[in-house]
């Protein structure tokens, strides 16, 4: 059986949104598989410092940077922290994101700007700064962007969010093409309905879905449950590692459904738009 414990030996990573949810799962798995150092970042200082300690307990040189990506200058702050502490970056995972609701009718300019700042602008410049450092250090690194199945079009109530993930999908391919000759790989994962604490809160807040209703709906899925963060984290590590070879510019649909396939005819909006 293959030993994964030293898969990322002597390598350094940045995980945005690494203080909770999927980002925390990615950073935990990286630490277990030998990553020498990890920068995690997020808004909550309490969660960030707790996750930082968990990673250090695994023998990883972890460092939390408090960063709100609605503020552009925090992108440079994160990269500067990695350069100062590690003097190198071998991998970047853009996990941070928001999925606030808003249709084409009721999305405000402020909400639109907030979503695009976090979901598109921040990954753009984090990739720019990371690639510059990789070029400077002559590192053939890997970048993974966390997208959503909504990048294919999305739900009516997620107009701005879906648009941001569609933009990130195009950006992922463009940057992968641009950095190909430097052997820097860039891939993305279109994540489907995933079981996280945040998702449960979102379902309760926006859709009045109770914990029991959430569990019942989960069991109706083809595999009898929702996607687990650990499953996505393993896919992220595959894309970060040499196991994925020269794979670049790829967008993986990780969902319990196949785009373009269905037995109930063409999907229809649940209700008409209302002013």
UniProtKB/TrEMBL annotation:
**What organism does this protein naturally occur in?**
Commensalibacter oyaizuii
Protein name from the UniProt record: SDR family oxidoreductase
InterPro entries named among the record's database cross-references: NAD(P)-bd_dom_sf, Sc_DH/Rdtase_CS, SDR_fam
Keywords of the record: Oxidoreductase
Q: Where is the organism placed in the taxonomic lineage, from the top?
A: Bacteria, Pseudomonadati, Pseudomonadota, Alphaproteobacteria, Acetobacterales
Q: Does the keyword Transmembrane apply?
A: no
NCBIfam families given in the database record: PRK06198.1
Q: Which family does it belong to?
A: Belongs to the short-chain dehydrogenases/reductases (SDR) family.
What Gene3D superfamilies does the record point to?
NAD(P)-binding Rossmann-like Domain
Q: Transmembrane residues, as ranges? A: none
Superkingdom in the source lineage: Bacteria
């Amino acid at each position: 059986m293959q030993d994964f414990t030293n898969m990322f030996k002597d390598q350094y990573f940045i995980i945005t949104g690494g203080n909770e949810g999927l980002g925390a799962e990615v950073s935990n798995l990286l630490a277990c598989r030998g990553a020498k150092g990890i920068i995690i970042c997020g808004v909550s200082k309490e969660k960030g410092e707790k996750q930082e300690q968990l990673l250090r307990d695994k023998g990883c040189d972890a460092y939390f940077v408090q960063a709100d990506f609605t503020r552009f200058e925090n992108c440079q702050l994160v990269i500067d922290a990695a350069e100062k502490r590690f003097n190198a970056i071998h991998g970047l995972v853009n996990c941070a994101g928001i999925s606030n609701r808003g249709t084409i009718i009721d999305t405000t300019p402020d909400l639109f700007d907030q979503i695009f700042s976090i979901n598109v602008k921040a990954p753009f410049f984090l990739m720019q700064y990371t690639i510059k450092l990789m070029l400077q250090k002559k590192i053939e690194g890997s970048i993974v962007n966390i997208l959503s199945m909504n990048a294919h079009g999305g739900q009516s109530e997620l107009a701005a969010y879906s648009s941001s993930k569609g933009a990130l999908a195009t950006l992922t391919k463009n940057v992968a093409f641009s950095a190909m000759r430097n052997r820097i790989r860039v891939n993305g994962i279109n994540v489907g309905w995933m079981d996280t604490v945040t998702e449960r809160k979102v379902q309760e807040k926006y859709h009045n879905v109770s914990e029991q209703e959430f569990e019942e709906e989960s069991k109706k899925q083809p595999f009898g449950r929702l996607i687990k963060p650990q499953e996505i984290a393993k896919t992220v590590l595959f894309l970060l590692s040499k196991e994925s070879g020269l794979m670049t510019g790829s967008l993986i649909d990780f969902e319990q459904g196949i785009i373009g396939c269905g037995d109930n005819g063409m999907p229809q909006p649940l209700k008409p738009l209302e002013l």
